[in-house]
Amino acid sequence: MLLFTESAPFLLLGMLIAGMINQWIPRTWVEKTLGGKSSIVNAALIGAPLPLCSCSVIPVAMGIRRSGASKASTASFLVATPETGVDSIGITYALMGPIMAMARPIAAITSAIVAGLLVLWFGKPGKATEQEPQAKTTTNCCHKAKVAPSSISEKIQAAFVFGYGQLLRDFMLWFLIGIFFAALVTTIVPVGFLNQYAQGILAMLVVVLISIPMYVCATASTPIAVGLLLSGITPGAALVFMLTGPATNIATLMVIKNELGKRELGLYLVAIVSSALISGLILDALFEQFDWQLQLSHGEHSEMVGVFYQACALVLAGLIAYQLQKMLLPKFANFKSV
Fold first, then answer.
1. What angle do CA 321, 326, 327 make, to 5 degrees?
2. Do 232 and 191 form a contact (C-beta atoms < 8 A)?
3. Could you tell me which residues come within 8 angstroms of residue 43 by beta carbon, excluding any fewer than 6 positions away?
4. How far is Cα of residue 289 from the mean position of the Cα atoms in its chain?
5. Of 11, 222, 276, 296, which is most buried, counting CB atoms within 10 Å of its CB?
6. Which of helix, strand or coil describes residue 153?
7. What is the Cα Rg of the chain in Å?
């Protein structure tokens, strides 16, 4: 409960910013900017702040590929976008402190550039598939994208609908699971438990094996990483989890195989895993060298700030309850009608 309260204001702010980005940086601009002779670095920098989860990045990546983007730029975009975002950076700052909040996007962008370079240097050359004309309404695996609003008031309204509606629905279940996992670890698992069995690179390899089959977005991976930290893993291993988990779900991997090729899929995985491991080792070395301390949140605030955090937690809980009933009521109605 304390982790939920601690993360609430940052998550609400992150979802609002994500909604604004979604409205003022439309998909068509992303496709146009990254099409043609697009840069690997540009793809990483543009993808990093975008509020797209692991599955909703797929149609955008296919769009930029079929708009003329190279395989390398598409791979770079596919790594940077799900690994970080404005909402996930906010919750990372809330739950882990400024060092981890800075390390996460830096490592994600670096990982994306490495993936792009590997595909550029060792991938097979190939032309993009011709893109079919798009209808005004398209559907992806996470939500339905409607015709873009035109006026400022409509865009503001749409930003709230996206940030506190579609985006929240995309990650809220995994977020709640992550909060529960972190609370469970805090209650049951002794501090330093994992340190008895794995240290350094071995612990990070274990985390990679755990994270690759998981379907978890960047925001929802954060409380899970907090739980792992409380069980005894190092900050570097937690960073490895937050990088590999969101970028390696089965749906994304299948799209890479079909759109870019088998060799590019292998290079994509090599880039993500190797970059995550190197980033984790560097982060652990920096923590040891400069004697940094993690700032894991435990809900300790002054009375005034505590009231603000609690109010934000109530708002977030209300939004989640509202979205849950929107998701469950139609299914319940269909079940009763059978």
1. 100
2. yes
3. 34, 64, 69, 73, 74, 76, 77, 80, 112, 116
4. 29
5. 222
6. helix
7. 20
Q: Is-contact 96 283, C-beta < 8 A? A: no
Identify the pLDDT of residue 137. Answer: 39
Alpha helices in the chain (DSSP H): 2-24, 27-34, 40-47, 57-66, 71-83, 86-96, 98-122, 152-161, 167-188, 200-211, 218-231, 235-247, 250-259, 262-290, 303-337
Of the candidates 102, 158, 23, 87, the one whose C-alpha atom is nearest the C-alpha of residue 286 is 102
Q: What pLDDT does residue 271 have? A: 95
Distance CA 186, CA 201 (A): 24
| CB atoms closer than 10 angstroms to residue 321 | 10
Give dist(CA 233, CA 227) in Å, integer.
9
Question: Over 60: is that where the pLDDT of 336 sits?
Answer: no
pTM: 0.73
d(CA 25, CA 22): 6
Q: How confident is the model over 27-79, as pLDDT tens digits?
A: 677 667 776 556 899 999 988 887 666 666 776 777 777 767 788 888 999 99
